[in-house]
Amino acid sequence: MDFLFNTNAQFFIAAYLIGGIPFGLLLAKKYADLDVKSSGSGSIGATNVLRVVKEKDPSLAKKLGIATLALDALKGVFILIIAYFAGVSEATLWGIAVLSVIGHCFSPYLNFEGGKGVATGLGVMMFMLPLEAIVALIVWAFGAKFIKISSLSSLTALGALIIASFIIHPDMAHAPVIIIGFILFYKHIPNIIRLLKGEEKRVV
């Protein structure tokens, strides 16, 4: 049990536990009395919160969608900022980033189910690789405006971020970026199948 008193281990555990907080589920339940896990795509992310709550209250849906997006993005950044000022190594920061995404996608509070990890992934990347995250955000915004398919926009942005990381930081260890990318890709497999079948819904 000595490892629990290790600073790195404490940050890793905190990253996973805080990353696992299902803000979308909690907000929709509290303010709209809806269970997003049993509606829409079943995801706890901002897109499903927006889609499900919109059927009941369009105005509230936008507010809860934005709040979910912001909180999911910030929960990884929160631990990273504390760890950064605590003076941990860059490797530890990357570990925190990866575990925050894992926590969101495989939440300990939801029987290891969770969201797609896009907002949390973008949040930690904004801290770790801000230039690459900006590239991804621009690509995502373009897709959201013209493609209007959330999953396709997110996957395109993910690809842009990974490619940009190799161009902007060719000498860095890319393993954490690849791991996060793989997790997000894995969580989007159902969306990819629907995309191939032409069944993926647009965000309107």
TrEMBL record:
It is a multi-pass membrane protein. One of its GO terms (molecular function) is acyl-phosphate glycerol-3-phosphate acyltransferase activity. The chain crosses the membrane at residues 12-28, 122-143, 155-186. Pathway: Lipid metabolism; phospholipid metabolism. Its main location: membrane. It is found in: Cell membrane. Its EC number is 2.3.1.275. Keywords: Cell membrane, Lipid biosynthesis, Lipid metabolism, Membrane, Phospholipid biosynthesis, Phospholipid metabolism, Transferase, Transmembrane, Transmembrane helix. It holds the Pfam family G3P_acyltransf. InterPro entries: G3P_acylTferase_PlsY. It catalyses: an acyl phosphate + sn-glycerol 3-phosphate = a 1-acyl-sn-glycero-3-phosphate + phosphate. One of its GO terms (cellular component) is plasma membrane. The keyword Lipid metabolism applies. It comes from the Bacteria. GO terms for biological process: phospholipid biosynthetic process. Belongs to the PlsY family. Probably interacts with PlsX. HAMAP family: PlsY. Catalyzes the transfer of an acyl group from acyl-phosphate (acyl-PO(4)) to glycerol-3-phosphate (G3P) to form lysophosphatidic acid (LPA). This enzyme utilizes acyl-phosphate as fatty acyl donor, but not acyl-CoA or acyl-ACP. This is Glycerol-3-phosphate acyltransferase. It comes from Sulfurimonas xiamenensis. The gene is plsY.
